[in-house]
Design goal:
Length: about 230
Amino acid sequence: MEKILLKADTRSETGKGVARSLRRKNLLPAVMYGEGKSCMLKLDSKEVQKLLLAGAGEHALITLELNEGASGTSEHPVLIKDYQREPLTEELLHVDFLEVSLKKKIKVTVPIVIIKEPAGIKMGGIMQHRVREVEVECLPTQIPDKIEIDAGHVELGHSLHVSDIPPQEGIKIITDPSEVIISVTAPKEEVVAAPAEGEVAEPEVIKAKGKAEEEAPQKEQKEKKEK
């Protein structure tokens, strides 16, 4: 697993006014939690944004390099536990880090990636992707970036379940094995309702009026007047 490094500084100031002031300087207010304690932080907002855009979320182990002033720097293994954005502008407002022990197993969610198109799609089937991530238990250093599944053998009318995920050393899947990851179904056919018993379905004939038909009644009235 590639090491992800983020640099942060400790801070003592709190409050909404302080948070707004930090964001004006392109700094992101944050908190690191762990073992019953918390530490207030500030870090480069752009760096965190890059990390989130790259797809690193709860499943990515991050090394937080913390500048503690006179005490020097220290490294902390953390996960992004939560973050907030401004609803309209999508501006990143705050992030919560969870410090973890590298020697204790944790539960995290990992995305599922389908690497081959199911055979059933070539037969006219439609793929339904139901489960897009699974919960796993492992050491923080063993968290996979993703779990790849070869779905090339899945034919029309068949499914791929969580139980079909190949086992990986040191990783235990917590998600229910019976959960369906993908299924390939036949397209629905449009059903035309049949006429009720005893009824004969007759096509509706719409006859366009020609010029001669429109003039016929007028001609007949004219002849009556002349008589």
